[in-house]
Amino acid sequence: MRLRSLFAAILGLTLIPGLATAETIRRETLPNGMRLVLVENHSKPLVAACIFVNGGSRTETPALSGLSHYYEHLIFRGGSLKQGELEFRKQMQRIGEETGGYTTNDYTCYGFTAPKENFDEAVDRSVDAWMNLKLTQEKVNKERQVVMSEYNQGEDRPDYKVYYQIERLMFRDHPYKRDTIGLKDVIEHATLATFKTFYDDRYVPNQMVLAVVGDFDAAQVKAKLAKAFGAYKRGRDDFEQGLTEKPQVEFRMGVESMKTPSTWTYVGFHVPTYSDPDAPALTVLASLLGEGNSSRLYKALKERENLVTTVDAQFEVRRDPGMLFVSCELPPQNEARVFGLIRDELKKLATGPVPPAELERVKSGLENKYAFASERFFSRAERLCLFGVMSDVSLEPLWPSLIGSVSAEDLQRVARTYLAADLASYSVVRPAGTTGPSQSDITAMLAPWREGWPAQSVLSATAGLKKETLPNGVTLLLKEDHSTPVVAVSTMARGGQWIDPEGLAGVSNMAAEMLRRGAGSMSAREISERADALGMTLESEGTSDAAMVTWQAPSKNFAKAWDIFRDVVTQPTFPAGEVAKVREDLMQQARSLGDRPFDYTNVQFQRALYTRSPYRNPVAGDTATLFKIQVADLRHAYEKMFSGKNLVIAIVGDFDAASTLELARRSLGRLRAGSPVVMEAPRDEAPRESRVVFVNKDQEQVTYNTGWPACTLHDADYVPLKMAVNLIGDRVFFKYVYEKGVAYRSWFYMADRFGQMSAQNEMGVTPAHFPMVSAGVLEDVARVTREGVTAADLQGIIQKTLSRYYLGAQDDASQAGRLSFYEASGLGYEFAERYPEMIRRVTAEQLTAAARKYFAPGRYTRVAVGKEEAAAGGKASPSAPSR
Fold first, then answer.
1. Residue 303 has what DSSP assignment?
2. At what angle do helices 558-570 and 657-668 cross, to 10 degrees?
3. In angstroms, rounded to a whole number, what is the distance separating the alpha carbons of residues 876 and 798?
4. How many of the other CB atoms lie within 10 Å of CB of 461?
5. CB distance 375 to 366 below 8 Å
6. Alpha carbons 837 and 677: distance in angstroms, whole number
7. Can you tell me the mean pLDDT for 566-570?
8. What is the pTM of this model?
9. Can you tell me the distance from the alpha carbon of 566 to that of 560, in angstroms, rounded to the nearest whole number?
């Protein structure tokens, strides 16, 4: 039976024994309307704050469309009462971690996580940045270029286009028909007066909810926040437009085409708000349909017939009635068949009961996912804000119980109510030059959907860590942490690209992908279903240096989850049918690489930068190499990597180390010892003269990498060079994203690898800005090598790097991953403790020397992808040959 309301459900659930919690959620409303939600949690010395500014694009008229998102950019650019332009973001990166920073249809989110000793400063800076923005025409103009770059990027992405189209199909009256980024005309032409009025109206206390979670005293924090926000006056109570969407009574379809190798589809349905009594059932319904490899649509579309590359289903969290959708990427020739199978699965839900075991597995998975998210303080604060805006904060701790109360009858009822054929909309983006089923073809497929449709019924890094090496060489790292009922495991099997035979790039990655596709007596489906039933998240993937198997599970299910893990790493079966499916998925990803501009540019850059290292090849292979990989190649790669002397397993969380150690000895002691994988190659040197490659490609932005070969983890230069990269990266990011406002994305980084790494700047700009930016970044790098750094610059980057490091291990899974990486790399897990002190000891002279050693002027490698003639100012220059 449908609950009268979620609030009635709350009253009922609070009477059920076992739902009470020792945790207190303190809610306060300040005199000016500001809502505060405070949750003390003393398990980690961190504090997270999240603030939602109510409204979003939902409350924007066409003349204001996109300004909520635009203001997100302006707030981050800064320039406020107490802080200069860019100072807020720079200082926040020093004292903590900016989190949030996004806009949805219903709100804009900001926030941070910081060590507790930095909390007061973080609050002072954040409140000033959020509430005291000084707006100028110059700021608006600079940020306009950035926002337009983001707008244009959507034109290059089929996954964006197909989503925008489903919104336009489903919403004809409601503002949800306009995407969050807004209308181009508003972005380009809104006046300064319009911007100022928007800010004065919207950034007021009674349009905000602020949640704080972490290691603090609630009374003290309440007093601090009351003082910080007390001076700001209440504004308008709401900006509702009074627009509601008329009921949809007919099937709708929209088709677009663009340059892409895949077809992308959405099937969407109108559903009620997140505060509606049906929201828990719709959440379960979407998960059952399309979340994970044990979902119904995955089995129907992927496992049984291998018709799609990806499939997903989601119930979107929206304040007004929104949408539930099924999305797919697929080869063009499969479109009609895929649509028909989605139709059939939707009808099964409306006409037949969900088996108890399946329902319990799905609900358990959702409940456990909810628990996992609670590990990070910011995720918890964000969730409290979400419930505060969408419905009521009281629901947040009770949501798992509401999910648990969903019955098979509830699922059948909501399927009948919302998923009928004449309530559906179909959005499709097809490859240019191809055809697919026409609207009449699709309409003809609705008859079986309509036929017999049931009538709607009223229904510290290493403290306490133990290390043991088994006789066969397997290394175990065990760290107990009983603060949350979760266990995380990270397994690294050394090998990766170092064991890929010449001409078979991607074999180690594919072997890693295959581990979950059959092991011991379990099929791929059985692995997924058993894992889902336990709340176990199990992943396997290949990296440059290793095959990784990572998982986490509720501690109560640890032993059963370990049994699955044991078979996956010791007894993979490599079924021929699954090999074919994984190969096709990887080949499709390789074919569609051009749809992901930055990924495509990175692959081209690695090929140009390296001549000796195996890193010159794509980790996942390409269409030519993947086609040649056989089962015997996969088994050979597995046997090399998953041998005792190459295997490191880190376990962190709520478990007993002594009993787990005995379990691991029994489970893993029979693995063959093998031989350590040799990870050595002659080092690549920077070219004697700059090497420039321009790949001419029809895309709106120029995406490019400029970089140099760098050091290894074991070199004395590693930490000073890492600091130099971080310092330059900060300068480049703020200069081109904020000060000049010409780049939507800019990174300067050195990704950690076991072999010789690379230091590189990755950026996306318009063709018109490419000559200026690409030359400017080189000058920014050269300035550090010429002039060195000041003591203030050094201390700032040390503090920021330390903050990043400590914030990077907030949950068990991150800690396990860090420990296993350091141990497998040869640095030893103890490096996790040594690294912060090494950072603190870096001198300005060491940082400058490292920059001069590796960033030689005029010896860089650059790969750029885009419209070459436009980037050259109308005069195309010959492209350097790719090697």
1. I
2. 30
3. 43
4. 20
5. no
6. 30
7. 97
8. 0.88
9. 10
Closest C-alpha to 122, from 148, 90, 92:
92
pLDDT, tens digit (0-9, with 9 covering 90-100), for 722-752: 999 999 999 999 999 888 889 888 999 999 9
- Is 631 in contact with 574 (CB distance < 8 Å)? yes
* HEC per residue, 111-145: EEEEEHHHHHHHHHHHHHHHHCECCCHHHHHHHHH
CB 344 within 8 A of CB 306: no
Closest CA to 537 of 754, 355, 375: 375
In degrees, to the nearest 5, what angle opens at C-alpha 80 toward C-alphas 75 and 84? 100
Neighbours of 452 (CB within 10 A): 9
The pLDDT assigned to 54 comes to 93
Q: Note the pLDDT of residue 394.
A: 87
DSSP H or E segment with residue 627? helix 623-628
Tell me which amino acid residue 508 is: S
Q: Within the chain, how many helices (H) and strands (E) appear?
A: 33, 24
Segments of 808-868 assigned E as strands: 861-866
Beta strands across the sheet bearing 263-271: 252-258, 424-431, 263-271, 322-330, 310-315
Which residues, in sequence order, are CB contacts of 19 under 8 Å at separation 6+?
13, 398, 401
Alpha-carbon distance of 449 to 347, in angstroms, equals 7
Long-range contacts of 246-251 (CB under 8 A, 24+ apart): 246/172, 246/173, 248/170, 248/422, 248/423, 248/425, 249/422, 249/423, 250/422, 251/421, 251/422, 251/424, 251/425, 251/426, 251/443, 251/446
CB 115 within 8 A of CB 99: no
Amino acid identity of residue 81, one-letter, is L
Give the pLDDT confidence of 641-683 residue by residue, as tens digits: 999 999 999 999 999 999 999 999 999 998 999 999 999 989 9
Average pLDDT over residues 143-156: 88
Closest-CA residue to 297 (of 253, 329, 254): 329
What pLDDT shows up at residue 783? Answer: 95
Tens digit of each residue's pLDDT (9 = 90 or more) over 237-290? 989 888 889 999 899 999 999 999 999 999 999 999 988 889 999 999 999 999
Closest CA to 96 of 75, 78, 116: 116
pLDDT of 456 above 70: no
Spatial neighbors of 226 by CB under 8 A, at least 6 apart, are: 28, 30
Q: Given the structure tokens 């419905």, which residue do they identify?
A: 391
Q: What pLDDT was estimated at residue 7?
A: 35
pLDDT category at 15 given cuts 50, 70, 90 is very low
Planar angle of CA 113, 220, 129, nearest 5 degrees = 45
What value does the mean pLDDT take over residues 550-554?
Answer: 97
CA separation for the pair 672, 87 (Å, rounded):
56
Question: What's the full length of the chain, in residues?
Answer: 883
